Each structure stands twice: as C-alpha cells, then as structure tokens.
Amino acid sequence: MRGNSFGKMFSLTSFGESHGEAMGVVIDGVPANLIFNLKDLQAELDRRAPGKIAGTTARAESDVAEVLSGIFEDKTLGTPITVLIRNTNQKSADYDKIKNEHRPGHADKTTELKYGIRDHRGGGRSSGRETVARVIAGYFAGLVLPNVDVKAFVSKMGPFEFKSIPEDINKNFAPYSFPQTEKNEEIKKYLEDLKSNGESIGGRVRIVVDNCPVGLGEPAFDKLKADFAKALLSIGAVVSFSYGLGEEMANMTGSEVSKHSASFGGMEGGISNGDRMLMAITFKPTSTVGEKAKEGRHDPCIIPRAIPVVEAMVKIVLADHYLRQNAYTLK
Which residues contact 209 (CB under 8 A, 6 or more apart)? Predict the structure, then answer.
C-alpha cells in the first residue's frame, strides 16, 4: 500500500478524499466479542467534526458513522471492520483559487510532483478530513485496552499557555481543550480575529497516558517511542515530537536525568515501564492564509479539533503493541 495503512496486529487502512463521496477506514486485528456502542463511537467523531467549535472551520459535517462490516449484535466479530463517513457539505468552488497555486507547508506541490496530479479541493488525501478514519480506529483501539487512560490537551496556542500537567487531567476541557476553561471566551475571540484577518497560528499539545501495561514496545526498530513518533508525526500539521524531559535533556547532566525514571516519560529503552507516560507535539500554523483563508472554510488553528485525533493515534499504537506482546507471551 502507498502509505495508507498503519499498524501490524492492530491495523487501519484509510481511504477517500476530502471532497469525494466519502471517507472511510478498514480496521483489522480487533479481537472478537468486544462490546461495540455506536453512540460512543459517534461521540468521538463529534469531538473532531467540523462546524462545532466557534472560531474554527465553517464547514459543517455531521460525520455520521455507517458500520459496513465486522460488527454483529453489538459485538466485534474478529473480522475486518469497515466504517464509512459520507461527505455532505463540500464547497469545492472555495478552492478554485488555489487550483494552480501551491500553499507552502502543505502537500500541494509535493503531491503534484509525486503523482503528476492532485485533487486541489480541500487537499484531497492530504486534508485534515482524512483524520476522521483515525478517530474511528482509535475508538476500536480503546476497546482493546479499556483501562488505559489517554488524555491530550492544548499547552500552547498563541498567547495562551499552560506549562504544567493539570491535576484534574480527566476533566472535560471542551471546547478548546485548554485546561484553563475560564479563558474559553478569550480563545474564541482570538480565533475569530485570526480568521477575519486571514491569519493562522500553531501551538503545542501535551499527552498523558495512565495505566499503560508494562513491556509494550520492542528493543530495536519497533520501540514504543518510535511508533508513537511515527503515529503522531503522520498527523498532517504536526512538526515535532518529544517524550519525557525531551529537549530539556540537552541542558542536563546524566546525574540529573537519572535521578528518577519519570525523566523518561514512561518508556525506557523504547519499552513501557509502567510509569505515567508524558509526550509533547508541536503543530504548525494552518497553511492557508490571507484572502484565501477569508474566502475558504479553513481552521485558523487546527489544534482544538486535532485533540481527539492525537488521542486516537496514541491508542492505536498502544493497542497494536499490546496485541503483539500478548501474541507471543505464554501465560
């Protein structure tokens, strides 16, 4: 496959274009007899869906999940699961002005160089809309590891910054996923001002994983940290990944770093050690700016809608490694 699949024992293959008939995903490796709840799946999709967060894209998609295979009487069958999301609110004319232009930092130019053709409407496969497939797969990954808690939150977005880990990490920080929810109105105005000025902003997201099983990850090429990095950097707007103390280690001595295992963000030698996992990623500003951003339906900051995608990719990696670990461990 040309880069449309991810995972080994728990795997997903996404398909569809932003302005095509539908987006979808085929998920393989989900064990049988896990209880499926369509409302819970839809709730995850609603968190990512466009048109629901003030100050983000005006594209309004219901993102209703159609389960085509792999589920019977509300249980997984152990066979490939296929879920479809119909595209119902495309306005392809909004993208006519960039048909013959390339947005720096987007995949416009590189897609054309690679294939000799591109779907300019919304970015085609490179659109953030592709991530709907990842959220679906993340829901099923959560069924494999129901006791693992994965939480992502915005740690920086423009002038808004939260430098620590919230004590109430499992609190609902909706709609902007920023721990200081009392600033939601300020954030809304900030994003609306960016939108009206045709500007965009990037930021950072921190990820906390609690109750991760010990022993996930392999000692060489399939280190858990390496698969997290690949998973999270595969999200279109993500430009950097770190875990534990990350880049801070460049300014520290070995004795400082080695005082306690928490410095390593829940992974030592690329294998989970049972500690709380801490990771961080950086998002670039949305590529569409200026008059094109004012006329089209673009996010001035993608991060609030990307949070469920981030959590999904982490769950997918964990589920994959959990199944791999238990596939060859005698009990």
Answer: 148, 149, 150, 151, 266, 276, 277, 278, 279, 314, 318
Q: 66: Cβ–Cβ under 8 A, 6 or more apart, which residues?
A: 83, 84, 85, 86
- C-alpha closest to that of 40 among 138, 176, 150, 154: 138
pLDDT at position 298: 78
Using CA atoms, how far residue 278 sits from 103, 138, 206, 227, 232, in Å, is: 33, 19, 7, 15, 13
Amino acid sitting at position 198: G
Q: What value does the mean pLDDT take over residues 216-230?
A: 97
* Beta strand 81-86 pairing with 267-268: unpaired
SS3 percent helix, strand, coil of the chain, rounded to 5, is 35, 20, 45
> What secondary structure letter does DSSP report for 35?
B
Phi and psi at residue 2, in whole multiples of 5°?
-90, 65
Q: Are 216 and 322 in contact (CB under 8 A)?
A: yes
Q: What's the rounded Cα separation, in Å, for the pair 272 and 235?
A: 23
Residue ranges of E strands in the chain = 5-6, 11-16, 22-28, 65-69, 71-72, 75-76, 81-86, 149-157, 160-161, 203-210, 238-243, 267-268, 271-272, 277-283
Nearest one of 244, 213, 243, 247 to 231, comparing CA atoms: 243
Rounded to two decimals, what is the model's pTM? 0.94
Identity at 186, one-letter amino acid code: E
| pLDDT tens by residue, 123-168 | 778 888 999 999 999 999 999 999 999 999 999 999 999 999 999 9
CATH number for the domain running over 5-327: 3.60.150.10
pLDDT, tens only, 26-84: 999 999 999 999 999 999 999 998 778 888 877 677 899 999 999 999 999 999 999 99
Instruction: Indicate the domain borders of the chain.
Output: 5-327
